[in-house]
Amino acid sequence: MPTASTIGLFLAAAVALFVVPGPAVLYVTGRSVAQGRTAGLVSVLGIHAASLVHVAAAMAGLTAVVAASASAFAAVKWAGAVYLVYLAVRAATEGDSPTAAGAVQPVGLRRVFVQGFVVNLLNPKTAVFFVAFVPQFVDPAGAARLQLLVLGALFVVAGLISDGLYAVGAGRIGRLLRRRPHFARRARHLSAGVYATLAVVTVVTGRRPR
Q1: Nearest Cα to Cα of residue 30 among 200, 197, 201, 204
Q2: How many domains, the chain?
Q3: 193 has pLDDT over 50
Q4: Is residue 163 situated within a structural domain?
Q5: Whole domain around residue 129: which residue ranges?
Q6: What gap in Å lies between CA 150 and CA 152, rounded to an integer?
Q7: Distance (Å, rounded) from C-alpha 48 to C-alpha 50?
Q8: What does the DSSP 8-state code read for residue 20?
Q9: Do the domain assignments include residue 14?
Q10: Looking at the whole model, is its pTM more than 0.70?
């Protein structure tokens, strides 16, 4: 088991990473503003359900393979970018039919969860994070897999809290914005812009560490 001091340092580092807005925060806030707090929180659950997959992959050594293989890393990176472009196009084109009082046509919560899950699952930077960052807090003399499991679980819990706060805050802002006319069209454009930005971020910054 990691020591108390190791856990404290790890949580401090993780919180510092979460405070700086990244792709997950951008996705969560965009979804929360467009559709409300509940959708934002569901997207947070989807994102960190994928984080659990990354934790399991790190324990199995799969993330090391992705980080070490240029072709595997590129495949994951481009798959994620293509999926985000698909979401951007769909967000920009769906709901073009008139709606009463310009209301936003909500996306089903199951779909919100799945989108968040896939976005983070296909984010190679998350996999690399567990290869380059988390092992620094693992004592090689102890049970490495157990330590990875504990640290991964703490990372997910910290992420749920941090991203959840973003979802609640953005949901309140979105509630005010939804009272304004023509919000439906602007919300679709916001969602499309968020997905397109995430696609660019994935391609530009999702590079295999040397």
Answers
A1: 197
A2: 1
A3: yes
A4: yes
A5: 24-205
A6: 5
A7: 5
A8: S
A9: no
A10: no
